[in-house]
From TrEMBL:
Entry protein name: Ketol-acid reductoisomerase (NADP(+))
Note accompanying the cofactor annotation: Binds 2 magnesium ions per subunit.
Binding, substrate: S251
Source species: Brevibacillus fulvus
UniProt keyword Metal-binding present: yes
Residues spanning the membrane: none
Catalytic machinery residues: H107
Length: 330
């Protein structure tokens, strides 16, 4: 059974009087920094000059360079984009990391794939909220917290786990529950989920459905509603009560179509390909490709981004979303 931790399991004293440096102030950084501060922790923010720096100061934080924040910190939480972390770690964090301090992440990529190799005299942990940053903050402000995963990669102090749990409590996660994992499990499942299901799988499914309808002569506007817009309504139901709640809420005709057709779309061939995708994550093929892609200044990534933006579903979507005033708030 999976190990779960709650507020009663937390020993807050392990972070008492400690300085936490949040490196990066984007989606996760702004949320984790503010939650920890509101929980009574001493938080500073490490950044380069720019947009995020201004925002963090506006939010009332002491902001300094990554090197200086690391020097002052007992607990360093790295919340920069994953593909930037290795270089900033090498140049600014490693030379300033205090012996006995804790180096921490919200995703295991750089540790698991050996892009960051910490010294032996620090703890290395992960606290990974299972939620986008804005929700990490919003749910905390409402008096609760989002679930998180925690993991220990290296336990120099003998207190690595307790510190990770105290941090998780500071961002609110012990209200919801904290699940123990490993860097390997978190990294591989996170990459697999976003590639096969959440991002890659869903985007292609939506486009394939849209293209099929449009090529058969149906109006792109109608195809957009059926294949993209309504997805949110379905996913909301799954999120609230699993597949059963979604199937309870849809018509019996839709439910019959679900059972009779779903497996003709996600076929044995698709499942075999999913296994291959997982193997390429496990054996480092995906990580190597993404690291090299970044070193080459992202030629495939940039080209693909442009091509995707030119797809018909994006053109018609832009027009249709203007009709839905409640979507244009931000
Ligand atoms: P963002 O892209 O939102 O934030 C990046 C931040 O890093 C910005 O404040 C940026 O500042 C700063 N930054 C970039 N380069 C540097 C640099 N060279 N020196 C100093 N600061 C720099 O990142 P996320 O919050 O999305 O991701 C952070 C971590 O959290 C990742 O490990 C990710 O996998 C993990 N995670 C993210 C989730 C999410 O919902 N987004 C969910 C769970 C985990 P500037 O304005 O100067 O560019
Ligand atoms: Mg991810
Ligand atoms: Mg319908």
């Amino acid at each position: 059974m999976v190990k779960m931790f709650y507020e009663a399991d937390v020993n807050k004293e392990v972070l008492n009087g400690k300085t936490i440096a949040i490196i990066g102030y984007g989606s996760q950084g702004h949320a984790q920094a503010q939650n920890l501060r509101d929980s009574g922790c001493k938080v500073i923010v490490g950044l380069r000059p720019g947009k995020s720096w201004e925002q963090a100061e506006k939010d009332g934080f002491v902001v300094c360079s990554v090197a200086e924040a690391t020097r002052q910190a007992d607990f360093v939480q790295i919340l920069m984009p994953d593909e930037r972390q290795a270089q900033v770690y090498r140049d600014e964090i490693a030379p300033n990391l205090k012996p006995g301090s804790t180096l921490s992440f919200s995703h295991g990529f750089n540790i698991h794939f050996g892009q960051i190799v910490p010294p032996a005299d620090v703890d290395v942990v992960m606290i990974a909220p299972k939620s986008p940053g804005h929700l990490v903050r919003r749910v905390y402000v409402e008096g609760f917290g989002v679930p998180s995963l925690i993991a220990v990669h290296q336990d120099h102090s003998g207190q690595a786990h307790a510190k990770a749990l105290a941090y998780a409590s500071g961002i609110g996660s012990t209200h919801a529950g904290v699940i123990e994992t490993t860097f390997r499990e978190e990294t591989e499942t996170d990459l697999f989920g976003e590639q096969a299901v959440l991002c890659g799988g869903v985007s292609e499914l939506v486009k394939a459905g849209f293209d099929t309808l449009v090529e058969a002569g149906y109006k792109p506007e109608i195809a957009y509603f059926e294949c993209l817009h309504e997805l949110k309504l379905i996913v909301d139901l799954m999120y609230e009560g699993g597949l059963a709640r979604m199937r309870y809420s849809i018509s019996d005709t839709a439910e019959y179509g679900d059972y009779s057709t779903g497996r003709r779309i996600v076929t044995d061939e698709t499942r075999a390909e999913m296994k291959k995708v997982l193997r390429e994550i496990q054996d480092g093929t995906f990580a190597r490709n993404w690291i090299l892609e970044n070193q080459a200044n992202r030629p495939s990534f940039n080209a693909r981004r442009r091509l995707e933006s030119e797809h018909g579903i994006e053109q018609v979507g832009e027009k249709l979303r203007k009709m839905m005033s409640w979507l244009n708030k931000e």
